[in-house]
Amino acid sequence: MSKSYLKLFAAITMAIFVISCSTDSDEESTLAGEDFTNTNIRVLSIDTFSVKFSTMKFDSISTSISSRLLIGQYADDEMGNVSSSAYMQISASSYYLDNDAVLDSIGLVLGYDTYYYNDTTQVASLEVYKLTDKMESDDDAFYNTSITASESTPILSTSYYPNPNRDSLYVTLPYSFGEELFNDIRDNNITDDESLYQQLKGLKIKPGDSDNGAIMGFSPSSADTYIRFYYTIPDELETEEYTYDFSINSYYNHTEADVTGLPLEVLTDQEDNLDSSDSNGISYNQAGTGYVTKIEFPTIKEVFDIGREGTILDAVLYIEPNTTSHSDIQPLSESLLLYTIDQNNDLASQVANSVDVVSGTLSTDNSEFNLITYEVPVIDFIDQKLSESPETEDALILIPEDYNSTINKIIFNDAEKSDYNTRLVITYAIYE
Prior knowledge:
mainly beta, 13-stranded antiparallel sheet, 23 strands
């Protein structure tokens, strides 16, 4: 999210005695009964409060706490050219090799972690570069916007077919690249991490500039991803091949979207907002790159205009994803966590109730009618907005739990674009 921490529809008129109710316009009323209370209670379902969508973009998202390496690139109609490169610093568990050891070959093993986004049937490219600077940060974190300087010419450029169902991808590295490192360890010129970093400060792995396929997830675990040296000791009676490994000790993903010529191009600062009315009735969410939909309820305090004593029993926000923006290779997230942001679009807090954190869930109950929605319980936020003093300009955002380690997008239809399937429904009890 941002470096501050993460660095993650028309006015309504309600009559006093006649309330506009749910979409079928039928008023739901119940009578409590004398055995419960002597007070008559009417329960109303109100869905005429406006829901305002806009898109904002976090300046940066911490990706050094990501659970995976993200490498790849694809072109997207809504999000532009989306790409991700992985930067890593490596080390060995020990710096010892037999005095007679001779290098046979060296390879990079990238362990798939089953995550992918977009089209894995396309040929992908990998370019491996040596870093020219150490990976350093002022606040011990790295972000999707971080860049560590690297050589201009890759030590390796290769093509492969992504296959997330396999265990790993093996890439043979140049012998000359491995030989110098191997010999310096064997000859005690490299004896610890710092002396290694004098020779190899780290690696950058990026997609090819013309790639248009998938972004792949690889595990950073030492058991799955490593540089492996294969060597022998010639003087042994029976020649046996040995291995020696470097593993990742720190890493981050540099993720970005080139949105030139798209509505998102206007978002150049975290405080900027792109109203859905200026982007064809849609708003944008994308993990990894920092785009989120900002949700506001500008007319919510008109609930006081009902003019009778009552209380809000429930408040649910229904949001319709744009049907053309998701597919089998660009799936929707099953659940989204609810956060608040302040008037500067800085992350404020995660919304929680007395039981747990609040999340929105994907509902496909009406998928046969092509109606898919996210259902988000927002009563805690609504209660807070109605009782706050002084008033604030905070708003809601929805992000997936793996916002730092995926690239998934969600395009939301606003109320008008969705034919009012996107709506806020409040259940309100009036005491008479």
